[in-house]
Amino acid sequence: MLDLTNKQIVVTGGQGFLGTHLVKKLKEHGATKVVALAHHDYDLRDRAQVQHMFEDLHPEVIIHLAAVVGGIGANRLHPGSFFYDNAIMGIQLIEEARLHHTEKFVQVGTICAYPKFTPVPFKEEDLWNGYPEETNAPYGLAKKMLLVQLQAYRQEYGFNGIYLLPVNLYGPGDNNDLVTSHVIPAMIRKFKEAKEQNIPNVTLWGDGSPTREFLYVEDAAEGIVLATERYDKPEPVNLGSGQEISIKDLADLIKRLTGYQGAIVWDKTKPNGQPKRCLDVSKAQAEFGFVAATALSGGLERLVSQVKRLQGIGNDSAVRL
Asked: Which residues are catalytic?
């Protein structure tokens, strides 16, 4: 077990949605030297700036969260930049970590790397059995290449890098921009604004049939810390709740929690995304004792209650959930 107490830990993306919660969890686990990097601290796409980061901070453990992410719309608009930015950041960080003899590298990947028609629940050994869903394939494949790099570096150099596959996250601090956000914050915002403005219906993408699994962000942070402390193998590991829900049922639940009384209209000209997503989470429990603590209904109720306390949600696209 890796004792994090006196390790110099650098968290890329450490001031973002997941990063904020992860830094808090690391400190709860006794870490005393945690550096939370924001995108303006170092441009991780620039090799020289990555080198400067290592020279300045001398990380012993790196947890790489930084990513260019978004929902289906953003992935369709920016496939090239999503591929390049996510691939190059990880490739350069891993190479510099090897050159600087970093003790451990934790890569947080994405379930967008899984094939489009993966049998449910997704098992880690199915990761290479097909091509990802087309709308987010460039992002998913960029992240997937970092798994290849870590496994190759372990084989050739003995580099200790691990790879985690978290399911869709939700919780306080998430992005609710209607173009770049993921499904839960986007739905909450849409229903809240429709209620406040007396809009008779809310339009959602697709037909509501796809299924998804969601992991509360605080649970995800706990899983990452446990893996950092306890997991040292080359195989990827899923992080999830093991609870599957259809997008239609999710919309109905969020509609009820926000108190919206209007109708839901499904725009079937828009893509559904991957048909089904639900993870086999048994490996995380077996390898490092992670079990999600927050049920989806409870997490959503907590999140919507928090949003209701915010002011001006309908007037400011920068409001953070």
From this structure: 139
